[in-house]
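User: Show me a protein chain along with its predicted structure.
Assistant: Here is one chain, sequence first, then structure tokens.
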Amino acid sequence: VRRDDAYWKVAQHGGTRPIMNYIQWHSDKAIALHTPPELLLDDWEVVHEHDLGARLPRITLGTVLRFAKNAQKVSTPYAPPMRACQHVDEVLATILLKSLDLLGYFTHPPQQQPLGTDESGMSLFAEALGIVAPAFAEQGVLFIELLRTGALSAAPLQSPQYTEAQVPISVQADPPLLLLTRVAAILPMQLKGQPWDSPYVVRDLCAFAVLFQSLYKTLRNLVEVIMLMMFMEGRVALRTLGAADAALFTGLVARLPFREALNTGMGVVLHYLLLNQSKAAGATPAERWAALNLEAMFPCAVDLRRDLARVLAFWGEALQVVQRLEAGHAVPQALGGQFQEAHRLLAGALGSLGISQADL
């Protein structure tokens, strides 16, 4: 099979599994690309249709954790599929469970255990995700994955081609400030129907957005692929093969997580607020809020007080997640201390403005 500057050859090497060779036009050297091993995820038995809606009024990445022990092993990749899901909520819950399983949020018995042995459970990461409220489930998974990959830290960002003549990406390299604004940036800010028109720009968050938005899109691709696999493997009961099934498919796509339009607005607002606290002169929280004049600086925001209250609520849960992961040696020990220092900074700044979770 010829491509622009190379061609591919498929050959059999002493077995039934083909090995694909990649050969560039300017060289006779063949680079073997082995077919990846079969990936076999455990299947999941969720509850029946009449029970699922009562137990899970809102199906999210957080609420499905209660079914962690419902994993069912299968013998081979070619084993007959389990009972087809009969209800859209059951399909959605199974998609989320399979996606979390692939990310390593569940534990399973050794392969030598008898089939059907019910010893699955929540891993350290699922326990950490269970701390997060259902309203922040997507951001909770994104936050945990950013920590696991090392993309979220208090370290300044720097271009690989950086020279001293260039302006640094992370101009303000204060660790608590970097942590607070990066965590706040993964919470989508509610905007009016107009382009972002604030003159305030944070270079560090522009660079960090490339990292977390790429990961966010990858997580979206994951749940879409898992959904497609379920349809192709017969795990979804299709009766008409017509318009009703097309509506079921498109309806599921709309309910899958990781579909929001991300922005770094909350991180930018918090960055401005923390660096301009000296301007918040006044005897009362209302006077200090008015002195900052945030609405004029960020006119595209719908409700800044409510958004900052959301940051405060999510930050409290994120701090507990870090503590849980730190206890399980899943994040660097120094990170916990940096989060504690950042927590004191955030509590002081928002507390002086009278912002609390009561503003939600």
